[in-house]
């Protein structure tokens, strides 16, 4: 049974509403290449994002968070489920309509080196979406590009330089300028700082926050590290093996995590105060993340969970509101 977030709290301020999202990739085998199984990369995700907020989506690598982001943008076709942007069901739109919708939803990629084509100048990269969507004549587009570069903290004078002439942080700014060119309402930022030096990460995070305030952007911020999303997110969703296991306001999630997996992730974050750090107990998870091709029965976290009981091996815990606005998928939360 897919998890279900009780979305009665989804209001007119909701920009994105995702229900029962699944992305399964077929495994082919044998001489004829028949389907012999499925990798359940995303296996029933429910979440919603209010206009102007940042939802952090966190989990270990391979948990399906990036695939969720791409499926929301329809860059990967979902196997099942619903994705509504401003009430419009994206999963049923023909590709010509999806293309038009792309103006409203953009992506900032993880790798600032691989995501920018080295054969093109910065001006060509940032102007591409403007040209594709006929947003002005060449003079107007040039002015928009220069303005976008200024907005992300780059000198417009760089417009004729190639992306390989820039540092990682500057390239990520170019990627952000390209993502903002069409004034999207939703930006999916897929690990936008994980490839950058720590000193540069804070600058890019601050830039994203400034831009959100300036343009009223809504972010789905994908990260593998809870400490990265802590300050930028209004709410945080934690994913494990294709499902959201906890979803709450940032403060509640960090102060009183309800799901054992979230508790383990948080216990791994060092505390700057040496006295507190010395007294803290770290939860070491045993075993590896199971294969999404053959996930465990019931709660898929049960082989690694120190609280697991018989029911956990048999019944999938639904994502339910355990405290006000605090959802967890666990039979024994807290
Ligand atoms: Fe652990 Fe059971 Fe909760 Fe799963 S449902 S997280 S196995 S206590």
What average pLDDT do the residues reach?
A: 90
**The CATH class of the largest domain:** Alpha Beta
Give the number of domains. 2
Estimated structural class:
alpha/beta
Biggest sheet architecture: 8 strands, mixed
Q: Write down the Rg.
A: 21 Å
Terminal CA distance: 23 Å
| CATH fold type of the largest domain | Rossmann fold
* Series of secondary-structure elements, N-terminal to C-terminal: EEEHEEHEHHHEHEHEEHHHHEE
Number of helices: 11
* Small ligands present: iron/sulfur cluster
- Provide the helix percentage: 25-40%
The second-level CATH architecture of the largest domain is 3-Layer(aba) Sandwich
**How many DSSP E strands?**
12
Q: Outline, from the CA principal axes?
A: globular
By CATH's scheme, which homologous superfamily of the largest domain applies?
A: P-loop containing nucleotide triphosphate hydrolases
Q: Spans of 5+ residues with little confidence (pLDDT < 50)?
A: 1-8
Question: Which range does the strand content fall in?
Answer: 15-25%
Q: Order the strands across the largest sheet as they lie in space.
A: 6-7-8-3-9-10-12-11
């Amino acid at each position: 049974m897919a998890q279900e977030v009780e979305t009665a709290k989804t209001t007119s301020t909701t920009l994105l509403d995702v229900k029962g999202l699944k992305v399964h990739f077929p495994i082919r085998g044998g001489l004829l290449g028949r389907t012999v199984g499925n990798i359940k990369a995303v296996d029933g995700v429910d979440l919603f994002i209010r206009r102007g907020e940042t939802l952090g989506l966190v989990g270990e690598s391979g948990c399906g968070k990036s695939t969720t982001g791409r499926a929301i943008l329809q860059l990967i076709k979902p196997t099942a489920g619903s994705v509504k942007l401003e009430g419009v069901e994206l999963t049923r739109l023909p590709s010509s309509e999806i293309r038009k919708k792309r103006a409203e939803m953009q992506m900032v990629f993880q790798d600032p080196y691989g995501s920018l084509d080295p054969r093109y100048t910065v001006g060509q990269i940032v102007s591409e979406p403007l040209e594709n969507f006929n947003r002005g004549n060449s003079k107007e587009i040039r002015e928009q590009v220069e303005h976008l570069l200024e907005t992300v903290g780059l000198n417009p004078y760089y417009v004729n330089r190639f992306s390989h002439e820039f540092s990682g942080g500057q390239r990520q700014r170019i990627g952000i300028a390209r993502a903002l060119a069409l004034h999207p309402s939703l930006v999916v930022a897929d690990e936008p700082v994980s490839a950058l030096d720590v000193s540069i990460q804070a600058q890019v995070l601050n830039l994203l926050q400034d831009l959100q305030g300036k343009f009223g952007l809504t972010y789905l911020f994908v990260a593998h590290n809870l400490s990265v999303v802590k300050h930028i997110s209004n709410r945080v969703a934690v994913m494990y093996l294709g499902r959201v296991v906890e979803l709450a306001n940032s403060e509640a999630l960090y102060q009183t995590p309800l799901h054992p997996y979230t508790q383990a992730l948080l216990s791994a974050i060092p505390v700057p105060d040496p006295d507190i750090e010395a007294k803290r107990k770290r939860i070491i998870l045993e075993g590896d993340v199971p294969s999404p091709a053959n996930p465990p029965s019931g709660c898929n976290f049960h082989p690694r969970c120190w609280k697991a009981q018989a029911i956990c091996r048999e019944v999938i815990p639904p994502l339910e509101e355990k405290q006000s606005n605090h959802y967890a998928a666990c039979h024994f939360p807290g």
